[in-house]
Amino acid sequence: MSTTEPDGRSAAVTPVYLRATDPQAAEMIADLADVYGVLYGPGAKDEMTRYPADLFDPPHGAFMLLMRDGVAVAGGAFMPHSAGTTEFKRIWTHADHRRQGLSRRVLAELETEAARRGYVRVFLTTGPRQPQAIALYLSSGYTPLFDIAADPEQIGLHSFEKLIGTPSPDQPLLPITPPTLPSH
């Protein structure tokens, strides 16, 4: 018997791993680019093409969508960052499906998959105009690499890290240097 929400939709979501060039991924990337454009202006859409799509492919990367009744409702991806560290990108929830814990589920799913692939630390960034994302990362155990009391606009990119495994004594993790927002 399937669980349903009050509006009749199935509450079950299924993670589906696919290539970043898959047509289903393209719809999610386009929606996320539109969100970035609204928040940060037209130049922000460039973020979606900054990295080659194959960085998000196995064996070192992953691109995942949470599907509900055949529709992508949330998703995210990761790519290699440095030895033992992966960088999460493209964390997204469709506007019609927000406030259901799906972004938290995306993080948990990606963390599990990244650990399975041998990563021991996650690095991620979000912009200053995304307070919900900042709150999500803080409440999900991510350590901020910035002064949380500072003005968000002055900080620029908000960088976070989280250990998801135990670093090897013979291969210590390199310190992360947080990136800055590109000037337009």
Question: Would you mind describing this structure in some detail?
Answer:
- This protein is α+β, with helices and mostly antiparallel strands and 184 residues long.
- It has a single domain, classed as Gcn5-related N-acetyltransferase (GNAT) (Aminopeptidase, 3-Layer(aba) Sandwich).
- It is built from 4 helices and 7 strands.
- Strands 1-2-3-4-5-7-6 form a 7-stranded mixed beta sheet, sandwiched between helices.
- The longest helix has 18 residues, at 23-40.
- It is globular and about 45 Å long.
* CA distance, first residue to last residue: 53 Å
Percentage of residues in helical conformation: 25-40%
Q: What characterizes the major β-sheet?
A: 7 strands, mixed
- Count of alpha/pi helices: 4
Which CATH top level class fits?
Alpha Beta
- The CATH homologous superfamily: Gcn5-related N-acetyltransferase (GNAT)
Give the averaged pLDDT, no decimals: 87
CATH architecture label name: 3-Layer(aba) Sandwich
Contiguous runs where pLDDT drops below 50 for at least 5 residues: 1-10
User: For the CA atoms, what is the radius of gyration?
Assistant: 16 Å
Shape: globular
- Count up the domains: 1
Characteristics:
single chain, 184 residues, disordered N terminus, seven-stranded mixed sheet, 4 helices, Aminopeptidase
